[in-house]
Amino acid sequence: MAGWRYLLVFRVVMVFLFAVVQLFFYLKIRSYLRSTRKPAWLLTSVNILFALFNLAMVISLSWRLDLNSVPKWFIDLGIYPFYIWHYSFLMLFLLTAIGKLLQLPFLAVMWVWRKVTDRNRVPDSVFQPSPVDAARRRLLRQGFTVVAGTTFAASTFGILRRNKFDISNVTVPIAGLPDRLEGFTIALISDIHSSIFMTKEQMQVYASVVNSLACDLIAVTGDFVNSMVEEVYPFAEAFSVLTAPCGVFGVLGNHDYFTRNVDVVAKEVTSCGIKLLRNSRIGIEKNGTTLHLLGLDDLGNGQRAKKLIDKAVAGIEGKALTILMCHRPYFFPQAAERNIGLMLSGHTHGGQIVFARIGNDIIAPARMVSPYVAGLYSIETSHMYVSRGIGTVGVPIRLNCPPEITRITLTKA
């Protein structure tokens, strides 16, 4: 199945899920307001809010936004509240589902206990129902209100902070690094996702920061756009200023293929000064020594990755330094088998929405897809750095996972 078809299926599934979540909470809130005899205007307000935000979902599915004509005030007042509303209710739904699942073992124990003690049960004819525990219900409602408020506040915070980036300084020990490449520096930036949530003005800031690092080489590891081919034009204008002594290089990501016109994306990226490596390699000269830079398109599975890497490294002397740019980090084991010194990737956004960190590991949806989410990984003498990227996908929110520009320094192991 082509990449854009996966995207279409994903969108259909997400729309269905959002619709179910909206219906669930609408019925719950309406039932609560009626059972507690709240003022009629409250129910009317709920009806209006749910109608507006779900009408917005229908409009967003049928209307492709023109990036050049969407005013900033409309994005701030119309689009961001839409995402906050739907994402927050989705998180509440998941938290509710998790809570119900956690109750199951206790409910099972209670059920067994009742079965065991059934012979001592009071006959139905003399059974008197216990009074409803109003205080307990009130406590549960207050707790849910706190959780709901926290969820909406966190979503809003994640939108406001989504462009508060870090500059990470990382030293990578390379076995057998030539003396003349000691201290070689690479600026890594990934997952830009040019869109209405990553404007030309914001991208110009990132491009300026990358240049200010004054690295020997700049690597851009894919996802220049979000899903529409016209998004590449503001990207190309903003990142045309990138410059480095040893060159600026890039590879294509899965979202570049989602446009269904990847050749146009590639052409515009190349025209702005970023040399794309599409299943190929190039020799980089530094102080009279050559390192080999390889780049893979975002195509295929592990078996295809092996073939592409084999083709890219063919003819390279065994001890020469090789650096591989590959958008997805999934193929690091294949790269390590071929003695790639350093692999540069992105794709995961560092999780984008991270619930918790335990040591070097994280609790995030992305962790279920890949063991490589963010940071430096090693297999014997091979290393890989996975960038958290600077853009967002799905929802324009980052939680506990700021955008990242990385300055990598190579040193002898």
Characterise the protein shown here.
The protein has about 425 residues and is an alpha/beta fold. The chain folds into two domains: about 5-115 and about 135-160, no CATH class; about 165-410, Purple Acid Phosphatase, chain A, domain 2 (4-Layer Sandwich). The chain contains ten helices and 14 strands. The strands form three sheets. A six-stranded mixed sheet has the order 1-14-2-3-4-5, covered by helices on one side. Strands 6-7-8-9-13-12 form a six-stranded mixed sheet. A hairpin with a 2-residue loop joins β10 (about 355-360) and β11 (about 360-365). The chain is globular and about 80 Å long. The two termini are about 45 Å apart. The mean pLDDT is about 85.
Short summary of the structure?
With 413 residues, the protein is an alpha/beta fold. The chain has ten helices and 14 strands. The protein has two domains: 140 residues, no CATH class; 247 residues, Metallo-dependent phosphatases (Purple Acid Phosphatase, chain A, domain 2), CATH 3.60.21.10.
